[in-house]
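To whoever is covering the structure queue this week,

Two jobs came back overnight. Logging them here so there's a record in the thread.

Job A:
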Amino acid sequence: MDPTLRLAIIILQSYLIGAIPFALIIGKKFYGVDPRKVGSGNLGSTNVFRNLGWKAGVAVQILDIAKGLVPVLLVAMFFDTQMPFENRTPFEDSTVVRLIAGITAVVGHMFSVFAGFRGGKGINTSVGMLIAVAPVELAIAAGVFLLFIGFFGYVSLGSMVAAVVIPITMFVRRNLLNVEIDGYLTLVYFLAALALLVLYAHRSNLRRLLEGTEHRFPKLMFFRRKHRHV
């Protein structure tokens, strides 16, 4: 198969996998509710948790994570090493294509062709991709996310901070801790771009945070509860 056509197919399949609107499917099929018409109108797990309950929220979260992981795994399984362009990065060809597949899936989730080009914020789908390409940075960001949720109760704030922490963590590991990271100069810019994409998707949440009107989950503020009981 022509290398350019092969890459085009990988991008298309990654987008279509990422674009599957599991929040919409689960909401309509099992609850008779269109998540786009309740709460924030976002097709992500947070809005589903808030309006349809934890069972639906967990299901959407798991499936949205899978949307980021599956395209990367498919590339790892089926892609051969012939590229349609010269690879000037320090990564192997297959790794570059995995990054392309992952980010395309995130874009598909955020702008789903099956849901009027609406979607979620991209956090869970990004998590699925990062499991494959940056597991250490993802683990640290997950810890930061939980800390922010525990103290402040804002899922959006925790998500934005975690997204920014990922490229910063890689920068610190490489430049301050002298950890060897294969393809660092490619991956750190890629992760920074992904963080900017997540911040862009959360621009309305950021505005509500500044206005003091963002929805909070008090039940998740376990550090605050523990402090009050002392």
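Job B:
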Amino acid sequence: MTLSRFAALQWLSFAVIAAGLVYLLSPILTPFVAAGILAYICNPLVHRLNAWNVPRTLAVVLVMGGIFLLLGSLLLIMLPLLEKEISRFMSRLPDWVEAARFHLLPQLQQWFGAELQWDSQAVKGMLLNDWQSTGGAAAKLLPWLKSSGGAFIGMLTQLLLIPVAMFYLLRDWNKLLQSVDDLIPRHSQIKVKEITADVDRVLAEFLRGQISVMLLMSAYYVLVLWLVGLEFALPIGIVAGMLVFVPYLGMITGLILATLAAAMQFTAFSSVVLVWAVFGAGQLIEGMVVTPYLVGDRVGLHPLAVIFALLAFGQVFGFFGLLLALPLSAILLVGLRHGKSWYLTSEMYRNTNS
């Protein structure tokens, strides 16, 4: 009994020291945590290529190159589309100002019972001058970079660290796992491997479910926006669907792009409202139906548990809590399952029920 208590005290001390180190090093851990997550996601692809007699280093380069190519493709879709829509928006802005004067000014005069003055030329000039003044943003940005150069360089360094750390983690993944395995106490090795295998299975199911959500929501946005008659339904729908893995980012990005495109294409405001309704319905479908069933069922979480996890982790940890809510909940679920199994076979449970 004394030895078991001493061992428990040792593990508790180790946990406290590890938690303290994580807290102290938290400002620099972000790129390494991000690289670890990406390396875990990409390791099956590297392992598959390695099994086809592709050298592991080359396999890592190919997989990372594919990821950067995919991200670059998304940017090539988004940025030109956004630039084109903003340019069209500014070219049509004077017409909208004149239409607002013609239709809105009489309504305002009727509601407030006063004679209101509307100088269309002044409004147009103010809006266009504000837009043109943004062209000098670079000149305003340089003094900010000079005064905040250290913070900017630090942020840039952390971003550059992610692919570097990811490369070395992927290349040495098997060696790192073996090193961790060598540190596990021999009497606990079988149980630890069982738990880690369950966690790995659950996270793999989560990733498959998340990919299914991305594909399904891309198909939804493309199809429904096409039915609405939006000209850029295909690129906007793909971008909105592919970005749903980051909570709200896909919906917000797609909504902004679709609103600009609809404002350029349609003359009736009701058509713009219809586009808004598409994204509102999409957010409800994705959050209340698609994610709980395609992701929650795969990892063994009840749909209500998925919704609760998103709200709870978002409340406690903010944006990153939303991003990691489901995988962390799945890992916690594995721990609870093994904890319940241990409890049901423990003396405490048997003595309580005897």
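Note for Job B: The longest helix spans residues 56-112.

Please reply-all if you pick these up so we don't duplicate work.
Q.
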